[in-house]
Structure formats: structure tokens, C-alpha cells
Amino acid sequence: MMQYDVVIVGGGISGLSMAFYSAGAGMKTMLLEKNETAGGSFASYEYTMGNKSFWLELGAHTCYSSYASLLGIVEACGMMGEMIPRAKVPFTFLKNEKIHSIVSQLHIAELLMSVPNLFKLKKDGRSVRSYYEKIVGKRNYDEVIRHFFNAVPSQPSDDFPADMMFKSREKRKDVLKNYTFKGGLQSVARAITKQPGIEVKTGSDVVSITRENDGYRLKTASGEEYSAARVALAVPSAVASTLLANVSPDLSAHLGKLRAAEVDTVGVIVRSANVSMKPVAAVISPDDLFFSVVSRDTVPDEHFRGFAFHFQPGVSEKKKKERITEVLGLPMGKIEHIALKANVVPSLRLGHHEWLAKTDSILKSEKGILLTGNYFAGMAIEDCVSRSKSESERLKG
Ligand SMILES: Cc1cc2nc3c(=O)[nH]c(=O)nc-3n(C[C@H](O)[C@H](O)[C@H](O)COP(=O)(O)OP(=O)(O)OC[C@H]3O[C@@H](n4cnc5c(N)ncnc54)[C@H](O)[C@@H]3O)c2cc1C
């Protein structure tokens, strides 16, 4: 039986950052990830063709100068030199099968009349719709802005708490405003797994957690067992709820109240010469089968272009393929490679702050259980890392 100070379940950026802080605090740390690579929604897909290689983000794609906790980890991993700017290509709007700029779609008079509300209205206690339709005007919100907002959590976002979607955080002046890394976000995930004191076991689907003496015993689907003084859950809320059913029924039931959306992502890699679409950062198409198409044109490549289609759940494979070929304007035979990924994104609602306060109060009496993920103060990478940072403080107690 392998014995650890902390075993972390889930190797997305929440689990990876938790591992970083835990190992940094001198704890013997094991991270268990179900998939064959760590990273979760922070993992880039890597494609190799002969001597050419290309990465494509199938989840997160952009980091910002305001991501202070993430930057702390990037610095400690010696990755600052790998940071690169994103090419300035536009976010676009697909209407009647033609690409348009966002500005061309806005009702400018309505926008000018509404925008002063920015200085009067507070986000607290308001939903995304109730706040932003006053800032941009109702028609602009309904016809244009709403679709861009839906693309952020890849689900209808009208009812999200406005203060949990876009946050103003202090920016670091010495780093690029927005950036990625030469090898994609995956390169940061990989660098974290190599930090001293962190052991990572991929292909480890944790299926049960039970109490054992003063600690916990974890079992994986393949029958491996791990023992730990503390267990950290960095998985979607529904998975955390199931895994905690035996060891903390109250926390399990509380986690079970949260909802999440599944995003069916299809990454499409094509030879640059085969696509005529001008370079874009993303394509948003109102009320389409997908919430967004995020492109790799922000980091241009000599040979390939890549597009991640973030589909609604339940769309048939046939329909997805038809829509992909229509949007890219090329037949299936011209698609070089397809990669699939299932992302899980929380469906946050007003009242989440109260949910969060209750979570932390339950955790006060569960000193051996640490909870992190993208369903706490928000779903951005920085929210995940900040949560891991604050949870790791409890390790020291
Ligand atoms: C399409 C998309 C685009 C985004 N773009 C951005 C962006 O540009 N910038 C930004 O800041 N944020 C972005 N986000 C949000 C951000 O990427 C995510 O919220 C964040 O990466 C989630 O990290 P996580 O570790 O909490 O969860 P996940 O990445 O979902 O990781 C959870 C991990 O747990 C593993 N797991 C699940 N069950 C088990 C089990 N039983 N045993 C072991 N392992 C298990 C999963 O395999 C997974 O690897 C985006 C999200 C999506 C979906």
C-alpha cells in the first residue's frame, strides 16, 4: 500500500496547482488522473505528422496578466521564457454563413445610450443578463453579446452570477496582457508534474474513498490502492459528490446540489493551404449547434491550422461533421486529423456565494478533505489556482 501525506484526485489545473502547493509545503504528494495525460481542460492536443508537430487547445486557450497565482507557478517552474503573445486576429460573428466583425453587428446608438450604466450598476446579486443588457442595451445583448458570453462557459450564460463570469483583478505590468506558451498550455501542465515532491499517476480512475484510521484509502478502477492523511478532490462537483458519499455524507449532498454542463469538443486540424477562411481568434454563431469555434490562428503555424468546435451535448456525429465542413468550407476528405475531448463546465447560478460559504463551513470540520476545482469563485484558470492556493493553507493547519 502506498502511503502519502496528500493524494489529489483529478489532474486538471486545479489538481496540478494543488499538487504544486502541497509539495511546496513539504508534503509527500500523489496526483491521480483518470486520463492518459494530465491537464484536463488545460491540456493541449498534440499532433505529429512525420517531422511536423502541431498543438491545438481543446479547452482553455488564453491566460492573462491578471492571473497572479498562475504566474507564480509559471515562474517557479521556470516557464516565463516560454510565454508568447497571441497574434491579434479578430473574434468574429457568423451570420447567414458569412463572417462579420462584432462591431458591424452592434446597434451603436443603443450602445452609447446604455454604456454610462457601467459607472452606476454593481454586478453583485445580478445575473449576467440583468447586468449586461443594461450596459450594452437589450437589442445588442440579445442579438450579439449574449452569444459571445454563452461561448465563455459553453452553455447559456444568462443566469450566471455577473460577478463570477468576468472579474477585474490586478494586472501584472511586467507580463503580456494575454498570452499562451510556445508548446501550448500543456507545456505548463507538464512542467508542474515535474516539480520535486510531486508524483503523478495517469490512467488512474479513482472509484472509491473510505476512512482508514486517521486518514483515507482510495481505490482506482484497476484495483490500485493509496493511503493518505489527507485527500484533495479536484474533479467536477458531481464526481466529488459521488466519491465523498461514504466519508462525508453532508459534503457529498451539498456538492450534489450543483449543476454542470458537458461540452463535446471536436478539434479539427487542416493543412493551411486547404482553408480559405481569413485568420480568426474565434467564430461565434448565434443559436448554432456549437457555442464557439476557437482557432489556433492566434499562434500561426507554417503548415497547419486548427479549430476547436465546442458543441452542445447530444449532437449526432453526422450533424457535427456536416456543420464542421460547412463552417470551414471544405469537404471531410480535406481534414487532416480530428481529436475529441469532453469538457465539464460548472453551471453557476445566483446564490452561489451562499453555497460557497456553506461549503467552507462544512470543510472546517473535515480537516482531512480539501476541495478545489472550477466551481468555486469562478471557472477561469486563475480562479482554479487561487482556490487551490487557499485550500493548501489548510494543509498547514
Ligand atoms: C472550452 C473551454 C475554454 C476555456 N477557455 C478558458 C480560457 O481561455 N481561459 C481561462 O482562464 N479559462 C478557460 N476555461 C476554463 C478553464 O479552462 C477550466 O475551468 C479549468 O481548466 C478547469 O480545471 P479543473 O482542474 O478544475 O477541471 P478539469 O480540467 O475538468 O480537470 C478535472 C480532471 O479530473 C479528472 N477526473 C475526473 N474524474 C476523475 C476520477 N474519478 N479519478 C481521477 N481523475 C478524474 C478529469 O479527467 C480531469 O482531467 C475554458 C474552459 C473550457 C471548457
Report what the structure shows.
This protein is α/β, with parallel strands linked by helices and 397 residues long. Among the domains are: 2-51 and 65-84 and 183-258 and 350-395, FAD/NAD(P)-binding domain, CATH 3.50.50; 103-165, no CATH class. Helices cover 29% and strands 28% of the residues. The chain contains 12 helices and 19 strands. It has helices at residues 13-24, 68-76, 108-114, 128-136, 138-151, 162-165, 186-193, 237-243, 249-255, 317-328, 352-364, 381-395, and strands at residues 2-9, 29-32, 44-49, 52-57, 63-64, 83-85, 91-95, 98-101, 178-181, 198-201, 206-212, 215-220, 225-233, 260-271, 282-284, 290-295, 304-311, 335-346, 369-371. The strands form 4 sheets. Strands 1, 2, 10, 11, 12, 13 and 19 form a 7-stranded mixed β-sheet that branches. It has a 7-stranded mixed β-sheet with strand order 8-7-15-16-17-14-18, with helices on one face. A hairpin with a 4-residue loop joins strand 12 and strand 13 (225-233). It starts with a strand and ends with a helix. The model has no long low-confidence stretch (mean pLDDT 96). Flavin-adenine dinucleotide binds next to helix 1, strand 18 and helix 12. Flavin-adenine dinucleotide is lined by residues 9-15, 32-35, 40-42, 59-62, 154, 204-206, 234-236, 239, 263, 310, 343-345, 373-374, 379-381, 384.
